[in-house]
Amino acid sequence: MNPTIELLKSHRSIRQFTDRKIPHELLVELIRAGQAAATSNHVQAYTVIHVKEPANREKIADLAGGQSYVATASDFLVFCADMKRPTEAAERSGANVIRGMTEQLVVASVDAALMAQNVVIAAESEGLGICYIGGIRNNPQAISDLLHLPEHVYPVFGLCLGYPAADPDVKPRLPVEAILKEDYYTDDSELVAAFDDAMQSYYGERRGGNKDSNWSKNLTPLFSSKLRAHMREFLTKRGFEMK
């Protein structure tokens, strides 16, 4: 495989970072690489907040569930879905804009994710480590208030960036046969069962690992409770009415 594919297949989440700082010029280039990602209709419905203030980093680490590496990574970014900028631009051009459509929420969320993944690939190509922080959606209103986010903008996830101080194993993924289907959706329960066995072995054998679990068991909290049930009301209040 070529180096780019090998890089993508070697991704790990890094949660321990050295004290070495990312040069500002490199950080800017990573953001430019992010902007090169595909974007629906060239809307570019995202804004990235570079959180530099240490006190704010500490607050976000706490609000995200006590994830200390939010504060200790060289840099921390918050990727926001932003429909404020494009709708206002269309309005200034004379359009009678309609706000709050569900598709606008989808477009902005997807745009932010695509941009972030470009940033991640660029960062890892430079020897940096990353960790996505979905935990900022634990307290999205507090995060929004802290970052002064206006209406029609919401924080999708955070991203820790820094030079790795750890070398974790690459976590296995589902077999390609389970997720790549020909023409029609087909049952893949046998493949999932085999993957559960593989994950059970991975957790038992990985460095420092003594976890007795598998993929299916790890999904239990996501589907046995109303995970982040506050998100619908929060998004509606921010102008994403899902009409």
UniProtKB/TrEMBL annotation:
A Gene Ontology molecular function term of the record: FMN reductase (NADPH) activity
Asked if the record carries the keyword NADP, the reply is: yes
The EC category is oxidoreductase
Q: Which Gene3D superfamilies match?
A: NADH Oxidase (3.40.109.10)
The Nitroreductase domain extends over 9-163
Q: What is its EC number?
A: 1.5.1.38
Keywords, ordered alphabetically: Flavoprotein, FMN, NADP, Oxidoreductase
InterPro entries listed in its UniProt record = Flavin_OxRdtase_Frp, Nitroreductase, Nitroreductase-like
Q: Which domain of life is it from?
A: Bacteria
What Pfam families does this protein map onto? Nitroreductase
Family assignment? Belongs to the flavin oxidoreductase frp family.
NCBIfam families recorded: PRK10765.1
Tell me the protein's name: Oxygen-insensitive NADPH nitroreductase
Q: Which organism is it from?
A: Billgrantia desiderata
Q: What would be the name of the gene that encodes this protein?
A: nfsA
